[in-house]
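Exercise 3.2. Students should predict the tertiary structure of the chain below and write it as structure tokens, then compare their answer with the key that follows.

Predict this chain's 3D structure.
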Amino acid sequence: MTNYTHISGIIPRRISWAAVVLATIALALTLGPARALGTGDRAANGGTYQWPVKPFNRQHPVRGSFADPRTVFKASPTLRGALTGRGTFSLHRGVDIVAPDGSLVYPVASGTVTYVNAHWLKVDSGGGRAFEYWHIHPMVSVGAHVEAYQTVIGHIHRGSGHVHLTELENDRAVNPLAPGHIGPYADHTTPRVTSISFRGSETSRDELPNLLRGRVLLVASAEDEPTMDAPEGWRGLPVTPALMTWEIRSWDGRVVLGRQVAADFRGSLPDRSFWQVYARGTYQNMAVFGHHFSWGQPGSYLFKLAPKAFDTHTLRDGAYDLVVTATDIRGNSSSLTRRFTIANHRR
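Answer key:
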């Protein structure tokens, strides 16, 4: 029986596990050991380390991005379940790098193995820097010294289709896709803000923007396209933008509330809980609702533009534009505008 509570949406496949492993090892022997990443390579590739699967110096698809929502609902797959359901909710602490099951995994930086279990391991590279490799069958033990791009530390589990990479700086998860980290990495897609809405409470239905008064939650839906397509059911599924900002303008374009940051994943994860970053109604790609696994279904990424409700009394009655901008890790961005009317002093 498939375990549908796995946050990365594992799909079982009928393959010969031994054949995959043998074929992958043969490919590794054919390609030979990797050349160390030199200073010139770093400048050319835009990163201080390369990819953990071969070919190391070529970009691979990333089907799960840094700070993506990770949700497992105990509720049924309904709007009410998404708005009010309990479960397990977290921000994705790394990136999911697509590679075939059985692919050999290598460390992106030399170091010492400090933790191993049946599914993942951790390598300490010194100076407060460490890396975690998930969804692999480990082939090294605690205390082993591993060399970047030379030591095989494991192979990808059957049914995973990816290796999850977490980068840590002083035990804090940082974005591996940020400039100066993994490379080569290019991103030419543009994230989109797909909707802007106003709510009276965390779980209430959207308010009409024609007349707002008192305190309202500002919510925006946004998503980014992966820069390279992932295979099978993951093709076309979104990832989260790296930066969400907003501002309020008068109806004639004058800025009345300057740029506000709703979420910033460009460096590290925010010091906020999941439901302080994302709004209710958020769920991940291939979401789990109770016993239902949403194979091939895209997620819903709803951002709270502010952790607390916006007090409309801070502005005069009148018509305004809420402008929300989504930006990716390479600076590509786009905006969406929603007009609303404040009427605190009108009947």
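Discussion points: The chain is about 10% helix and 35% strand. Confidence is low (pLDDT under 50) at residues 1-46.
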